[in-house]
Amino acid sequence: MIVGAAHPKQRGITSRRWWRTEMIPGYGPSRLREEAVASAADIVVKSDLVRLTGATQVDNIYTPVWLGREGVLIFIYASDGAVTISAAGNVAVSQALAQNRLYCYAWSSIAAKWIPHAVA
Fold first, then answer.
1. Cα separations (Å) of 51 from 39, 55, 98?
2. Is residue 1 in a domain?
3. How far is CA 59 from CA 23, 30, 69, 95, 113, in A?
4. Has residue 104 been placed in a domain?
């Protein structure tokens, strides 16, 4: 049960499956939207989960809706093989993305760059 939510019978829900009418924020497959983007020097990302196709180096990642908001996260994976995300543009640290591995990037409005997660 969600903390702070009224009991199902208090809300007039009599079904045994009342929990399916509630959605926990950030939980469930409907919270992430996926798109395929062809690798290029500049890519535009419009979803949370990005399937990067091709092998061209990426220099800039643009997000027309989210740019300027702190704490925005995107997840990228390369489906066709290794791809390099370079630090030549708006990404703070260069990374070589291995095929079918998930990488996380957070937008920093102070640095005006995408900050990748730490990779050992």
1. 9, 12, 12
2. no
3. 37, 30, 20, 11, 11
4. yes
Q: What is the CATH number of the domain that holds 102?
A: 2.60.120
Written as six digits, the tokens of 62 are 């643009």
Asked if the structure places residue 2 within a domain, the reply is: no
Q: How far is CA 29 from CA 23, 25, 47, in A?
A: 11, 11, 13
Report DSSP state, residue 84. Answer: E
What is the number of domains present in the chain?
1
| Distance (Å, whole) CA 94 – CA 84 | 7
What does each of the 120 residues of the chain score in pLDDT, given as a tens digit? 344 444 445 455 454 544 444 444 444 555 678 899 999 999 998 888 999 999 999 999 998 765 556 667 889 999 999 999 999 999 999 999 999 999 999 888 889 899 999 765
- Residue spans of beta strands (DSSP E) within the chain: 34-38, 42-44, 49-53, 60-62, 73-78, 83-85, 95-97, 103-108, 113-116
Residue 72 resides in a domain:
yes
